[in-house]
Structures are given as structure tokens and as C-alpha cells.
Backbone:
């Protein structure tokens, strides 16, 4: 087995390699002055089971091209099987025709990865589970729910009596229900969110009881922070005791970290390291990271050994 890291998240890639007691294969992945990506795998991969670790996070297009070109290089170097390990699958939110004459970019990106030569995909908390069907190759979608369950139990000191799990929008109900199930079937509340445009969200209603409860929001992506901060404020306005949140992918564009600091309604935000945290996110006192390196390490080990991946979540 060989692990190769793109440039999007070296820290996570090294941590994954560490859990597998191996090191990353040596590869030169660089960008020429005109913006073109160049890749050179500097060790033999002929006949190897290769895992390319790359989140297609900001800058999404550069990181996507690095992934595609690395897969192409491995195909031409006669790797026997190539798994694209994509902890954060960017473009996932463009998974349907949102309006007339708009693309389904998530499908296009899936096609590109397949065409480049990937044999399998391994990813985490896809924005919508059905995106797996966009790939015509085996796709394993991991879940960060166990990591968040563990952290929630620590935060609430194993006393979950006053806790409610909240989905910040209707699309996240299945995900929130999975967390509530793991947290001893805590009650569920749902925020009825409307989105007028990218980065603008408005809370219309809260379905379920949050009055006097410690609320724990679970979402897949935080980008501008609008969804989370608006939901936290609306929940506090309905009489909640506190609002914490766990979100798998900390996209946290522009000044989202500053927005989190200013959001008095939100006590804390827990994200995973699927996206490498920029300095302002890493320094934000309200944001903490849990690592998904052991989860990916174990999934990679199981894929390499042809063992079940789904049983990781039994
Ligand atoms: C939307 O359906 C997603 O699950 C997230 O809630 C959304 O992408 C978060 O974006 P923002 O932080 O910009 O509101």
C-alpha cells in the first residue's frame, strides 16, 4: 500500500499515515508560474494499491486539478488500484439543478475523478448521501458522528438529560437523527431555514422544543457561518440554555471565524480536520478541532485488506 498526499491538507495526510505506521510516498506536486499543476511521483508504484489523499477545499479548483493530475500520473505509472481519498468533497453542494440553465457540478467533478483513473473513492459526510451515485466506481462515505458523539458526552459530562440535537435545516435531519440516536435518543429539533442566495440564510421557524434545553447543532458544512449563527440566535431566542455546534467540514470562508467569535448565542463550535484550518480558524478560541485521522486510517486499512468499511459504524 502507498499513501500520497496532495497539498490541501498535509497535516491530516501525515496523521493518517502515522495511524497506519507508514509514511507518505515521496511526490513532487507543484504549480508552475502560469498556474499549471505538475506532478512527479518519486518512487515506484507499479502494481501498488495507492491512496491519494486530497480535500478539494480552498482553492477548490487548484486542489481538484492536483488530485486529477496525481491520479493520471499514477495510472501511467501502472499503479494496480487508485483510491481517491477526499476527506472534504468540494462542489458537493452543487448536486442538483438549482435553477434553469445551471450545472450539476458535483456530477461533473465525479466524472472527472473517474475519467482521470480513480478506481474507488473514500470520503466523509457527503453533503447528500446520494452523491455516491454520481460515481460509477465504488464509493465509501464515512461519518464523523462517532467523533462528535464522544466530544458531546465529554462536554455534557455524560449527563445528556437536558440536551436536544438540532438540525440547522431540513436537509440535515437524517444526519442529526443519527447523532441523536447515538446520544441515547436525545430529542430532535429542526430549524426551518430559507436561503435567498449564496451566503444568506434566514430562520423562519423552529420545529421541536428547545426551551430550557442545551442544544447541540449538527451540520455537514460551515461556510460563511450564516446558517449556524442565525440558527443559534433563533434557538436562544426561543429560551434555550445554551447552543453548541459540531460541523464536519470547516470551510469557514472569509471572515467566518470572526463571525463565530461575535455570535454571543453560540458557546462553541467543533469541526473536524477534513480541511486544514487557516491561522484565524486555528486561533479562534470558540472553535475546536477533532481529528478524523484514525477513522480514515482504519478505513484505508480495511479497503487495502478487503474488509468491511460499513461495520466501522455498527
Ligand atoms: C447547506 O445545506 C449546508 O448543509 C450548510 O448548512 C451550509 O452550506 C452552510 O453554509 P453557511 O455557513 O454559508 O451558511
Residues:
Amino acid at each position: 500500500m502507498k499513501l500520497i498526499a496532495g497539498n490541501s491538507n498535509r497535516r491530516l495526510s501525515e496523521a493518517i499515515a502515522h495511524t497506519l505506521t507508514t509514511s507518505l510516498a515521496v511526490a513532487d506536486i507543484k504549480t508552475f508560474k502560469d498556474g499549471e499543476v505538475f506532478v512527479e511521483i518519486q518512487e515506484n508504484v507499479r502494481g501498488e494499491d495507492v491512496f491519494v489523499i486530497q480535500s478539494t477545499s480552498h482553492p477548490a479548483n487548484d486542489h481538484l486539478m492536483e488530485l486529477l493530475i496525481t491520479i493520471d500520473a499514477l495510472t501511467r505509472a501502472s499503479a494496480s488500484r487508485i483510491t481517491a481519498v477526499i476527506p472534504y468533497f468540494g462542489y458537493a453542494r452543487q448536486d442538483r439543478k438549482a435553477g434553469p440553465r445551471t450545472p450539476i457540478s458535483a456530477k461533473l467533478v465525479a466524472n472527472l475523478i473517474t475519467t482521470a483513473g480513480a478506481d474507488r473513492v473514500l470520503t466523509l459526510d457527503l453533503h447528500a448521501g446520494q452523491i455516491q451515485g454520481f460515481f460509477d466506481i465504488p464509493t465509501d462515505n464515512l461519518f464523523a458522528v462517532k467523533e462528535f458523539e464522544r466530544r458531546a458526552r465529554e462536554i455534557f459530562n455524560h449527563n445528556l438529560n437536558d440536551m436536544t440535537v438540532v438540525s440547522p435545516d431540513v436537509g440535515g435531519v437524517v444526519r442529526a437523527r443519527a447523532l441523536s440516536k447515538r446520544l441515547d435518543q436525545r430529542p430532535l429539533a429542526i430549524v426551518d431555514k430559507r436561503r435567498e442566495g449564496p451566503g444568506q440564510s434566514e430562520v423562519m421557524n423552529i420545529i421541536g422544543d428547545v426551551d430550557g434545553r442545551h442544544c447541540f447543532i449538527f451540520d455537514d458544512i460551515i461556510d460563511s457561518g450564516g446558517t449556524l449563527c442565525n440558527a443559534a440566535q433563533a434557538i436562544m431566542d426561543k429560551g434555550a440554555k445554551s447552543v453548541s455546534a459540531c460541523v464536519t467540514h470547516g470551510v469557514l470562508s472569509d471572515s467566518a471565524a470572526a463571525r463565530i467569535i461575535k455570535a454571543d448565542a453560540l458557546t462553541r463550535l467543533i469541526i473536524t480536520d477534513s480541511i486544514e484550518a487557516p491561522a484565524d480558524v486555528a486561533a479562534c478560541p470558540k472553535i475546536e478541532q477533532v481529528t478524523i485521522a484514525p477513522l480514515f486510517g482504519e478505513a484505508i486499512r480495511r479497503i487495502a485488506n478487503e474488509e468491511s468499511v460499513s461495520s466501522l459504524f455498527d
